[in-house]
Amino acid sequence: MPAQGTLMRTQHAVGITSYGAYVPRWRVRTEAIAACWGRETSRVPIRAKSVPGPDEDTATMSIEAAQNALRRVDIPPGQIRAVWVGSESKPYAVKPTSTIVAEVLGLTPFVSAADMEFACKAGSEAMQTAIAYVGSGMAPYALAIGMDTAQSQPGDSLEYTAAAGGAAFLFGRAEQAAAEIEGSLSYVTDTPDFFRHAHQHYPQHGQRFTGDMAYFHHSLHATRALLDELGRTPKDYRWAVFHQPNPKFVRRLAKELGFGKEQIEPGFLVPLIGNTYAGSSLLGLAAVLDIAEPGDRILFTSYGSGAGSDSMSIVVTPRLRALRNGVPSVRDYIARRREIGDYGLYLRLMKKIHRE
Amino acid sequence: MNLPRYRRLQPAFYRLQAARCTACRQVHFPSRTRCLGCGSASMEPVRLSGQGRVLSFARMLHAARGFQDSVGSLTALIELREGVRLVAQLTDVEPDGIGIGQEVEMVLRRLRSDAEQGLIVYGYKFRPVLKRQAGAQAQS
Ligand SMILES: [Zn+2]
Fold first, then answer.
1. Is A7 contained in some domain?
2. pTM (predicted TM-score)
3. Helix (H, G, I), strand (E, B), or coil: what is residue A51?
4. From the CA of B24, how far away is ligand 1's center (Å)?
5. Are A355 and B68 an interchain contact pair (Cβ–Cβ within 8 Å)?
6. Which value does ipTM take for this structure?
7. Residue A194, CA distances (Å) to A198, A211, A348, B54, B128 in order
8. Does the annotation count A36 as an active-site position?
């Protein structure tokens, strides 16, 4: 497929200055969900998934991820001129989450802030926009967050994987960055594979349709176009990160693209905590940055229903090592776990029990 | 909680903003316009570290409307690194998982749980300092 001119480049070279992650400590065993609905407990796609605590939501989780990003570096708050939160589980239906985050971080009032919406691609859309703000010279630094407390209909197949977590990325000029963005692109079509109307609590999805025509089509085309544009092959990359709806999809996507198991391993988190929606690919990228070494190339491709993918080529600089200064890693959050097997408590944590 | 009050409390609730006396350096939380130590009216805002330790704690058995999610949780008297003492709810901890002297750190959480209609009130809570895995970076 010809992909000439699809790459998006910035005026100034841009990079990831810092990053931070967050995963709540609660895990629900998926066999408890299966047992509640009379399904076979041996056929669950993953063993346990992360869920938010009773006092947590996308705002509080975004705040901790962003604080972790800011703790790794010493950037005056006035230099961070944009905060974008990509999510599909906002605390308020109408009222930006990004302003809460900006206020807590002490970045207000001269800061651009907005919430991004694009199913699981909302976080990478925030990243693209932050890259553009920095790359155009509008902001020295811009903060992009992808975070979700993913909602699923009780009894639906998505209930086994819809999870909570995400990551924050601080973008700045490439010369001071821990990893440089070599190029990015977006690939979008009107594909109604997953949607929710205003009056509904939970999204509807097409079963088979979400695979081939949605997740695989967009992830494959975006990634292949990026590789073509840069004249690269999967062999040029040490690591690859994709959106992770379930383990099976990720393994098949990596194989079709020509990426090996060892390339996806460090960022492959869905078997451990589930699908964190808008946080999924960003959290995977954060986990890769936790272990990557200078010179490593990282291929990053998100996917969001509706539908589209953002694909980016990233190369690690020697400054990444300086970010390992005791801020909790993705694996630290994954290791911190309080497991429950009680469907009632799970419903309470997911705020599905309504009181008046 | 009404909106003007919420806006007024935000610096303290969101960022543990305190007032430091420019004359005798004493730090006051909540903020004051006049120093309790020396009486000076010259105060400057400072952001507290959020790092501290538990001096005492109690388990909450009853809660007012809007705080139902706090039943069974722990509330602690905490001394911050700056010497400031405050009372705050603990989170991410089991009722038997805390002791006197426990090192804690501030996190931002939802304080009120009747959020389906009204304002969501966010503010500080404390949790045991998150454990870092030694050698987590060598996992590749
Ligand atoms: Zn004084």
1. no
2. 0.95
3. strand
4. 4
5. yes
6. 0.93
7. 14, 11, 25, 47, 39
8. no
